Amino acid sequence: MTNAVWTSGLRKRYRKRTAVDGVSFAVARGEVLGLLGPNGAGKTTVIKMMLGLVRPDAGEVMLLGRPVTDPRARAKVGYLPELFRYQPWLTAREVLDLHVRLAGAGVPEKERHDTLGLVGLADRAGDRVGGFSKGMQQRLGLAVALVARPEFVVLDEPTSALDPVGRADVRDILLSLKERGVAVLLNSHLIGEVERVCDRVVILDRGRVAASGTLAELLGGREVRLRLEKVTSEAEERLRSAGPLSRDGDLFTVAELEADVVPDLVADLVELGVRVHSVEPGRVSLEDRLLDILGSER
Amino acid sequence: MIVLTFAALTLREAARRKVLRALAVLTVVLLALSAWGFHTLVTREFDGALLTSGELRLIASQLLNLVMFGLSLIAALGTAFLAGPTVAGEMESGAALAILARPIRRSTVLAGKWLGLVAFGGGFVALAGLAQFVIVYATTGYWPSDPVTGLALLAFQTAVLLTLGLLFSTLISPMASGVVAVGLFGATWIAGVVGGVGRGLGNDSVAAVGTVSQVLLPTDGLWRGAMYAFQDPAALLGFGGPAVKGGFPFLSDAPLTWAYLAWTIAWTALVLGLAALLLRRRDL
């Protein structure tokens, strides 16, 4: 499988400040990759170098099989910038028409209108962008990124101006892109969003890749938390046999166990006379893991 | 093809932004005032008598140059303040990000915007200039000696200034690029007047001020060529003395040379090329 984008050793300095320092990673075709990191980690600069909007001081970018210096590399790319502004004197429909023409894509009128419908702007197609709220402009930006049948979509903070309904819409759009095999690079501070839709995550910190991998690799195995009473030594032994055990009063946490062994474990505990108040399956959240990685970096 | 898309987009921007309305209002005010002025010139008695046809032609010819200067100033202001936002403004606001992430070259975008602005400025000069000629003809019976060349040179002057505006807009903020371009336009005109006075008085070093400024920024050189095409050839003889040598700001003493025209074309291409180079290297 070829890559939608491949970057190697990207470096960028702005005067005395190093914004990006040797970043290398790839997004495979059909993959959804989350780009995480604190403010100023260099995420947006990496994205801009990836699209040829910022010239790297060093490093290489291959975009959909071509070097990024070749404008044709961007033919099948959809991009929603962090700073989303569209010509205020154009209508939403005209903005989409312009981008379809610039992309050189043959997208019929109905499909363009459907794209506006997808982001909830179907009834505002004929209105000038100048009168749009921030949230509506971000929705329009999403439509612009999606309209020219892209094979790789780059979304830089796509929900920063959206209400909870808008965020849910974006999640649905991301899942449908994933279903259609469109590669996505998602930069978002909403970790829950990333955790729900991304196959893989790259964490940037101070211009470098601090960690990367699939969610399972980054977050490790699952755990289960049980609130128990009347735990005998025999019952404790049963818990220990399921996985590494830790205890905090009546709260027992069994780590690294598979979800399908939980019912048997609970049945055995009940049989051993243990009173089970609650069973909470869980795992380390991406947020905890991110804070952990960033904390150990400093 | 994409160049034309951007040219059309620039024209649409000009048409939909308030700058077009402001230009139209300014132009109508200027045309109306000039119509009133020219009408007064014909109907009013000076020292107990109306002007003779010779005097009328002479004065109409000079006044036409003065009004055309006003029009060229409006065109310069309009296009310089359109050229600034079209590049620098889009980069500042972020509108350029989504556009330049498409499979297009930045130089194509710049060329398209330039073409659109030239069409806008040229169209304005042609329409407003023609309206002014008709007003002068209807009131005084005077028709410029070479109107097409004059209007073409005036349109070229607008193109030169907006090219400079585009260059600045790849470097500095939208408003600053418009202000600097218009400021330089005014400074070159004043330098041209100073140079003319120098020639009139036979002072070579003062005359050189005008020549050097006309080479550095060809707007004033083109304006003087345009004036020569608008004015009555007899006007030169009528004034005589230092005026013939260039000492009067609204009278041109010589037509444009081909060498100067070639330099102006080369200047425009160079400045536009430099703007494209700067834009290509600029981080967004």
Our count of helices of chain B gives: 11
Shape of chain A: elongated
| Second-tier CATH architecture of the largest domain in chain A | 3-Layer(aba) Sandwich
CATH topology of the largest domain in chain A: Rossmann fold
Mean of pLDDT of chain B: 86
Helix and strand composition category of chain B: mainly alpha
Query: How would you sum up the major sheet of chain B?
Result: none
The assigned structural class of chain A equals alpha/beta
Question: What is the β-strand count of chain B?
Answer: 0
Mean pLDDT of chain A: 90
Low-confidence parts of chain A lasting 5 or more residues at pLDDT below 50? none
Q: Report the radius of gyration of chain B as a whole number of Å.
A: 20 Å
Layout of strands and helices, then pairs:
The complex is a heterodimer of chains A (298) and B (284).
Chain A: E1 3-14, E2 17-28, E3 32-36, H1 43-50, E4 58-63, E5 66-67, E6 77-80, H2 92-103, H3 109-118, H4 134-147, E7 152-156, H5 164-179, E8 183-187, H6 191-197, E9 200-205, E10 208-214, H7 215-219, E11 222-229, H8 233-242, E12 245-248, E13 251-255, H9 262-271, E14 275-283, H10 286-297
Parallel strand pairs in A: 3-8, 3-9, 6-7, 7-8
Antiparallel strand pairs in A: 1-2, 1-4, 4-5, 9-10, 11-13, 11-14, 12-13
Chain B: H1 2-16, H2 18-43, H3 53-93, H4 95-100, H5 106-140, H6 147-169, H7 174-200, H8 204-216, H9 219-230, H10 233-239, H11 258-281
Helix pairs in contact in B: 1-5, 2-3, 2-5, 3-5, 3-6, 3-7, 5-6, 5-11, 6-7, 6-9, 6-11, 7-8
